[in-house]
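User: Show me sequence and structure for the first protein, then do the same for the second.

Assistant: Starting with the first protein.
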Amino acid sequence: MTDALDRLDLLDLDDDLADEDRMLRDTVRKFADDRLRPHIRQWFEDGTLPARELAQEFGALGVLGMHLHGYGCQGAKPSQYGLVSAEIEAVDSGLRSLVSVQGSLAMYAIYAYGSDEQKQRWLPEMAKGNAIGCFGLTEADSGSDPGSMRTRARRDGSDWILNGSKMWITNGSISDVAVVWARTEEGVRGFLVEQGTPGFTTQDVHHKISLRASITSELIMNDVRLPASAELPGAQGLKGPLGCLTEARFGIVCGVVGSARDALASTLDYAGSRTQFGKPIAGFQLTQRKFAEMAVSLQQMQLTARRLGELKDAGRIKPHQVSFGKFANVHAALAICRESRSILGGSGITTEYPVLRHAVNLETVYTYEGTHEVHTLVLGQELTGLDAFR
């Protein structure tokens, strides 16, 4: 696999990594190869994940909320978090989702919009993986249009009463704290709902075909009473949750580079050893054309991720640029996985090879945190100055 990875770096992008970045990348890659890769096939087939155990291991590795500053977080550059996302998603998108939801949605929401008391209470333990968070925005009937959410919070004296439900929530049932967004008379607000609060229940989504090595849940709030201190004071309106999504999408842009790279590298190895008509199938012209097109596409994905990392490191990244990355990279990653499967033939439909597992996971990534269509319209609005959402 190492030889295949080297051959796929046609533009020598790896040579431009700083020593610190390469050391970080290699450390996470070794952890992924030693701890995660040997088990991912079974986790996927069983539809399970030892998420709490892994969260503590990710915490010990220092990758949970690694791009945040203070409160036990590493204060790493966003581009370094991008490298980490790629290495984790090279094993499985579900594992990257565990890290991403923890650090870039739940922790980031508290970091960006929480009170100092909320930050001090939750962020150090979440950075260690001792506490797990989830992010409750999507509902069964409001995905791409979060402004139509039905979850409501009303005041009752100094308390809040929360009612509603959230759907497709990663880490939901194992979370110690849920960041839940609700409509109020003053607009959308965010609340921290602790596990065990009366009226707050969860139930897992089963029979998934995609992201099987990930915990997906429904959050149910039935007259949940919260103190005023549970509200995120810095979040006003939809800008709060949308800001969190922009933060998390950067991890997706970088992460899917890993899944596409892993699929292509494993297929390149296979094609070099699979013999038909007296020679390896890698020696046939049609197969080489597929490899050439996929390798170029992969390097374009890497260049997009690297450029967005530079912009984010400089504090200059804009939401439409993140949409550009998700629009381009997830689409390209899916295409690489599908074409790689065609080279694998019948072997490609089993979990012996990671290619189709990556592909079905990417079908979910294609949809969550902004569908491909939504990012199309974000780019269209930036180009034309006209809003086509409504």
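Switching to the second protein now.
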Amino acid sequence: MTAQPTRGTAVLETLRARLKDGTWTVGTRLPGEHELAAELGVGRNTIREALRTLVNSGLLTARRGDGTYVIATDELEAALARRVDSEQAHRVLEVRGALEIETARLAALRATPDDLAALRALLAERSAATRAHDDAAFLRADLAFHEAVARASGNELLLELYLGVDRAATYARERRPGTSSPEPHSLVWATEDVHRDHDLLLEAIEARDAQAAAAAALHLIEASHRILDAPGSAEPQGATA
């Protein structure tokens, strides 16, 4: 006979599911222990133990006097984020680049009309944020655009790997010293060349040109490396060309 899950295990899985399904995204402040306990019908100790487990797993961080925040949404992302903290940014870009080129190639072959509409809308949001000099909106739109390309690839495993590397690279490099809060995204990434490559990437996907899509993705990754390598330049926050 299969053992029934304990109440604590059930609560832990409920919290994990909220991270996984996007109910709580990276940067979200979780409800307090009282609120969670009342909602899930358990004691505060059960909630506290579940949160401690997720903190130890690298999914959450607890800030004394402030609350508990999401820093990763699954264990793969958490493991990658821990490694990013101790590895050079270029190594992360190399891995992300390989994944991004393949997602772009597959998106050109498999994107649905809904995928294309989402990509157009997100690219428009990215451009609008640039014109408004809105760093936070630029970061959201830029990450969402590249995530949408990965989703349009139609490969769920590739998407999971890409999201883990992309978010780990972005958020780990944006944390202020001593915290896990992202700093505002730097619009240094919003150069005319990079804008043009984003446009070319979308045009290639719309044209079903897998080779051109992969080439545009490669150009974006190369631009990221060039900015990181620029002599005397401050390292930009969030490698999301």
